[in-house]
Amino acid sequence: MRRFFPSWVNISLGIRLGIAFSSITLFFSLVLGAVTGGIAQKQIEHDMGQRLALVANQLINEVDRSLFERYREIQIIAEFELVHRFAQARTNHRPLLESLQNTYSAYTWIGFADQQGVVQVSTRGLLEGVSVAERDWFVQAQDQPFVGDVHEALLLSKVLPRRADQPPLRLLDIAAPVYSDQGDRLGVLGAHITWDWVEDMAASLLDRSTTGSREIFIVDALGQVLLGPGAWQGQHLDLGSLRQAQTQAQGYTIERWPDGQRYLVGFVSSQGYNSYPGLGWTILVSEPVATAFRPAQALFWKILLGGLGLGSGFVAIGWIAAQRITKPLLQISAAADQIREGNRSVVLPSPKGHNEVTRLTEAFSQLMANLFAQETQLRQSNAEL
């Protein structure tokens, strides 16, 4: 078969050395760049996950602390002697509840219901005379303080209308039983906190975030989305992050969501605060993987390309070194060819230093001197004969 390319055996030593230097340098540059870039990428991914978990933890801490304050506040007010008189008459009892509502803007309604569940006194007189005996907050707070999960306002929505562009009014319930000085139960003091307060808090955290692609979700104990983007509102989620939050409490993971996208998700579960038991919520802070890991991928390629660039520089140095090594050898080879052709006036190169090429040159010069001497002696002997 006809060969169009020279075989490896016929390639010069300089080219062989250059190829060897180049291959080894590029290989190690590629490996070093890939390993270093991979380590940096993993570290950035870890830091991003921890950052999302930190945002989730910050939100749940603020929510739990605020609910604890309201939880204790209602219990303390329920022990006031003035509250004990709420079961007697409605007149002049509103100022206490009004002042309490004014201390915290998230209070939508505060009222006292007697043993039969009829509201005797309330802020702005809303629902006074209305029975709340079947409402969950009244039933659950007969014997101990109660915190109720998010729900739509069934009664207050009729007396607190909202604009058409606003979502339905949603509330959190806090209630505590009211006892007389003799220990007899007089009724229940209840308060409604608007869910808008939690939404504003979550929006504030997102405003402080460095990216606009993050989303905050609050998921209840049954997996229903209480707070999230419009498309996710009210959906039930079955995610690994929710299951991990039940055992790990706080962390991050990468998972595929029902919309088909992969997300980096920081999670934390509510543990309550002090005497407030919590509602079993889980906070998820999600960001698409493509967006979250973009800085890590950019750094990976920078390190990899930087390593290849550095390797290319060493390749150039390797080629120059190979040429410097093989140049004296090529000069010696050319001189030998001339001597073989009968040229006796050839002068061998004189490389500097004390390396192998220098010793080879000296040995070859001595060999040629010996050969020329023997040749001269042989001619003299032939002439004598």
Q: Biggest β-sheet, characterized?
A: 5 strands, antiparallel
Order of helices and strands: HHHEEHEHEEHEEHEEEHHH
Radius of gyration: 43 Å
Tally the helices. 10
Parts with pLDDT < 50 across at least 5 consecutive residues? 1-5
Name the CATH class of the domain at 79-195: Alpha Beta
Widest beta sheet: strand line-up: 2-1-5-4-3
CATH fold naming of the domain at 79-195: Beta-Lactamase
Describe the structure.
With 385 residues, the chain is of the alpha+beta class. It has a domain at 79-195: Beta-Lactamase, CATH 3.30.450. The protein is built from ten helices and ten strands. It has helices spanning 13-78, 81-84, 94-103, 136-140, 156-159, 196-207, 240-248, 289-292, 294-340, 356-384; strands at 107-114, 119-122, 146-152, 170-179, 185-194, 215-219, 225-227, 250-256, 262-269, 282-288. The strands form two sheets. Strands 2-1-5-4-3 form a five-stranded antiparallel sheet. Strands 7-6-10-9-8 form a five-stranded antiparallel sheet, with helices on both faces. A hairpin with a 4-residue loop joins strand 1 and strand 2 (119-122). The longest helix is centred in the N-terminal third of the chain and has 66 residues, at 13-78. The protein starts with 12 loop residues before the first helix and ends with a helix. Mean pLDDT is 78; it is low at 1-5.
Topology at a glance:
Blueprint: H1 13-78, H2 81-84, H3 94-103, E1 107-114, E2 119-122, H4 136-140, E3 146-152, H5 156-159, E4 170-179, E5 185-194, H6 196-207, E6 215-219, E7 225-227, H7 240-248, E8 250-256, E9 262-269, E10 282-288, H8 289-292, H9 294-340, H10 356-384
Antiparallel strand pairs: 1-2, 1-5, 3-4, 4-5, 6-7, 6-10, 8-9, 9-10
Helix pairs in contact: 1-6, 1-9
